[in-house]
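Please fill in the sequence for the structure shown.

STRUCTURE ENCODING:
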């Protein structure tokens, strides 16, 4: 800001200095001779320089002394003003030179950065090509070996005959495994499945092991306070897995868990506060600010208070259909500027898309200890699309949950997203871990198609372990959470002790039956019992508001499970009397 004043200041100083110099040198302050010129009648007073001889007609000559101090002062002022203008003009020139040098340096650094990025991309492509070539080469060798054994079975007999008994058993087992996995291995690189090929027969223990692994992958997401990234193509079951995690969290913490969601569709996410980015971006940004404000509030709490408070009150921010959101933020919402709060308390005006990425990066890096997590659902398998995970450290701060599924009825879907993840060293850094996943993948893929259940690949950022398995059938549990937490009423279900405790949390099934029996003994009708004791059909906000379905079915269930025959007889008599 100060540099902008250099030019007008130096110009003003030069002008003022020139005026002072002219005044100093004009002779106004020199000594003068004053006389009366008698050539005129009356005589005229005239003042001339003392160095000029007066005329003969001059009379009454008087010498007027000059003001040397004033002339000296004016000269010094002129010198000072001119020197100041020179100094300031020098500062202006130096500032412009510095700006020019900085621009040259920035341009040089940007050129080097672009060169480094291009070199890294080239290395990535070379490494990826090398990995694919090695995989293809290994598959070709395996295929040739199998073809050779099929066409020349005597070779297998000859090889087995030369091996000791222990090696014979190992070879037989390895051959059986190879035969079971040959079809999936052939299609590993493309991720596609030939639905017309005969089903691969896999033993039940392998199926049980993979389903157990899938359950472990889902269960591992419930306890963690890390952020989760759900990656998978449409129809791979991301919404069900996300709904299961949210439902179990809500069931465990109740109203203490705070759920917020930014989505593109009209979904509910277990009762979360939802904003639709394509409908009202202001509401979505307000949700984002709520989460960031609470995160920073927790970070500022004393450690003794923070640990207990955060443990009991988790916060989850859900970004569903993340790639569609990013496209919207980079197109029609690209010019939307928001005031984003910095940690210092100041506000910075930035694009809405940058605010989303800054908030998510802060949640990923700082939210784990504070029990503030981000759950992101995306269809992209490219980590570069998740801009808030801009570094390897960012990727290790989240749990990656890949899901893939081939629906044979609809003839859609593939397993490419998981096969690419297994071969990507930026996802699975340990070469031994990648090799272990490669060995499990063919069998898991065949079982996923055979059982028509999604395959899952989950990372555990704490230990570096990856889990590859088959997702168990969680649809009934998912629907139950939808009914409980999203206000959806399922009219076709059987009453159980658990459901009674959910709908009537302040009482037990036994005490509820006792109250019904007492009211019946007092002569209250079945209809009034259902309306008053069970509160069905009375309060529209009550989850058992249906009189004809929930009320009667609950009454019958209580009678069937707790009555000794007395209440059933009274109710039957009441029905006959009416």
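FILLED IN BY: designer on duty
SEQUENCE:
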């Amino acid at each position: 800001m100060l540099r902008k004043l250099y030019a007008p200041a130096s110009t003003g100083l030069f002008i003022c200095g020139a005026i002072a110099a002219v005044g100093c040198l004009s002779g106004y302050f020199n000594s003068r001779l004053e006389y009366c010129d008698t050539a005129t009648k009356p005589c005229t007073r005239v003042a001339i320089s003392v160095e000029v001889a007066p005329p003969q007609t001059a009379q009454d000559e008087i010498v007027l002394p000059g003001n040397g101090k004033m002339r000296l002062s004016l000269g010094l002022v002129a010198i000072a003003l001119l020197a100041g203008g020179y100094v300031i003009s020098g500062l202006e020139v130096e500032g412009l030179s510095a700006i020019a040098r900085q621009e040259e340096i920035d341009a040089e650094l940007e050129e080097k950065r672009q060169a480094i990025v291009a070199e890294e991309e080239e290395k990535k492509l070379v490494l990826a090509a090398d990995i694919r070539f090695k995989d293809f080469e290994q598959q070709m060798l395996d295929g040739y070996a199998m073809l050779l054994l099929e066409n020349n079975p005597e070779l297998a007999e000859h090889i087995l005959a030369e091996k000791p008994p222990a090696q014979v058993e190992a070879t037989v087992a390895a051959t059986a495994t190879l035969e079971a996995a040959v079809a999936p291995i052939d299609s590993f690189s493309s991720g596609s499945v030939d639905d017309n090929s005969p089903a691969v027969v896999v033993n039940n223990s392998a199926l049980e092991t993979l389903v157990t692994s899938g359950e472990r992958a889902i269960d591992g997401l419930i306890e963690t306070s890390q952020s989760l990234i759900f990656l998978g193509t449409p129809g791979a079951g991301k919404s069900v897995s996300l709904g299961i995690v949210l439902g179990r969290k809500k069931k465990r913490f109740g109203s203490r868990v705070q759920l917020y969601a930014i989505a593109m569709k009209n979904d509910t996410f277990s009762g979360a506060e939802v904003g639709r980015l394509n409908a009202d971006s202001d509401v979505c940004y307000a949700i984002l600010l709520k989460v960031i404000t609470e995160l920073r509030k927790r970070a500022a709490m004393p450690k003794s208070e923070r640990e207990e408070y955060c443990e009991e009150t988790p916060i989850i921010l859900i970004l569903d259909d993340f790639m569609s959101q990013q496209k919207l933020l980079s197109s029609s919402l690209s010019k939307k500027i928001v005031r984003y709060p910095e940690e210092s308390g100041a506000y910075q005006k930035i694009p809405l898309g940058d605010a989303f990425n800054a908030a998510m990066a802060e949640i990923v890096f700082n939210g784990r200890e504070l029990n503030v997590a981000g759950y992101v659902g995306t269809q992209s398998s490219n980590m570069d699309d998740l801009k808030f995970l801009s570094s390897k450290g960012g990727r290790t701060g989240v749990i990656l949950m890949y899901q893939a599924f081939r629906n044979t009825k609809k003839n859609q879907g593939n397993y490419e997203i998981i096969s690419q993840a297994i071969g990507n060293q930026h996802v699975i850094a340990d070469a031994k871990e990648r090799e272990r996943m490669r060995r499990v993948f063919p069998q898991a893929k065949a079982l996923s198609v055979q059982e028509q259940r999604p395959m899952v690949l989950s990372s555990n950022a704490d230990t570096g372990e990856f889990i590859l398995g088959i997702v168990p059938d969680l649809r009934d549990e998912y629907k139950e959470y939808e009914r409980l937490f999203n206000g959806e009423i399922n009219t076709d279900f059987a009453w159980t002790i658990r459901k009674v405790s959910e709908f009537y949390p302040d009482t037990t099934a036994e005490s509820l039956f006792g109250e019904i029996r007492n009211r019946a003994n007092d002569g209250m009708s079945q209809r009034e019992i259902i309306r008053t004791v069970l509160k069905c059909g009375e309060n529209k906000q009550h989850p058992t508001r249906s009189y004809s379905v929930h009320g009667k079915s609950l009454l019958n269930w209580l009678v069937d499970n707790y009555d000794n025959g007395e209440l059933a007889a009274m109710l039957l008599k009441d029905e006959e009397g009416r």
